[in-house]
Amino acid sequence: LGLACAVAAACGACSRWGPSLAFAVPPPASPHPSPLPWGGDAAAGALGLAQHPKSTRRPASPSGGRPRPGATVAFSGAADAAKAGTTSVTASSLNLAKNLVGSGILSLPAGVAAFSASPAALWPALVFLAVATVLSAYGFFLIGRVCEETQSSTFGAAWKGSLKRGSWVPQLVCILECFGGSVVYAMVIGDVLSSLIGGFLPVGLPMRTLSILGIGVTTLFPLCCLRSFGQLSRFSLLGTIATSYVVLFVAKRFFDGSYGPGGAFFDASTHPVLQASGAVGLNANMLVLLSILSTAYLVHFNAPQMYAELEPGDAKATKQKKFALVGLYGFGIAAAQYALIMVFGFLTFGRATQGNVLLNYANGDLLGIGARAAIGISMLFGYPMQFAGLRSGILEAAGLEIDLPKGKHRLVTAAILGGILGVACLFHDLGKFQAIEGALLAAFLIYIAPPMMALRLWGGPWAKARFYTLIGIGIVLTVVGCKVTMA
Fold it and tell me: What does pTM read for this prediction?
């Protein structure tokens, strides 16, 4: 899987994989007018915020997009200004891995159980995982290249700079996808925390709802107020270590047989319902796993900001090679952890696997309690990266400055976070929610939008063949996957 990621990154970085990078793009329009039909002053008024035509940021480059590599961006009202183009490859890779390995990892065993009860189903599942890794990594790199060519730092600006129109389309999809991802993260945090503290509080209290609201006010809100991914790098390492513990726990419980017949935590209701090994035929329910994989690998809405914050090299091509390394390391770490959780989680519980596999483990399992705590930590420190894409998309759609003054920044953060936590309290089936989210939205951001933008910049015959193939895959996953998931 790591080699597959390397191939994807190398193909994207190699000059023969695409035409020359010396493509000139006309200066994009001013970022202040809203590209959404319902944006602009009306949207700003609805939010109770004033437009800010005057920015305290350093003047933009002549192209009208983000500053050239190395330029600093002073955020209005920030206590410590974040700098664009100063994040190392290591820090960016850790941020990417942490952003990837989130709630999606817990739904993968249920994705396998959706189409088969045989251990042989793991072979096609691993093939799907490898293919999704390569295609997702390549799409992630393509967005970075498009941002370089169009001098953009947001998904909407990259779309407008390449396709020249319709920037509200990816913007709307990014908003909805980031909203869905933020809800999923909050759902996992609520499930984890309520299972940990449920035995210490009076029976009858809405533990899950109280957990979501409590952690949202005390922890998520301060983290979501951070303005730069660089500030999260130290926490991203902790989050990656936490998810690694979860992987080791799931593997250990499979090998020691604690949840099998005669095991210390055996429960007939969760006994693995596995068929004898044999061939697994293709069936439409496989698309449930593909939809979950789309959500699990969805980080593309943050690709523009990650590229802008990556430290510059000696030349443009050098920075793109560094971005390819970020994709290689980040997607490689994620693929390894996804594969282990998917295999051992499914082999432990089979058809009985729940949408959140950690809910299958007994409340009295001390190592399981540690796994829930670890995934909770991971979700906490990955949450701001999901939330940042949502907040930026909403502000851009409303025609507002993304870098608001401190007070208004916190007000907007609190309003958006409050809506997310409210929705998270209403939904309970994590696997179903992620499959629907992946089928409807993730396929567009991963497989359709990046090649559509690239088609307008690089038009060689081989490039067109690759891009149209990706677009076709995305359309199939969106249409058929949504139908199967909703059935």
Answer: 0.70
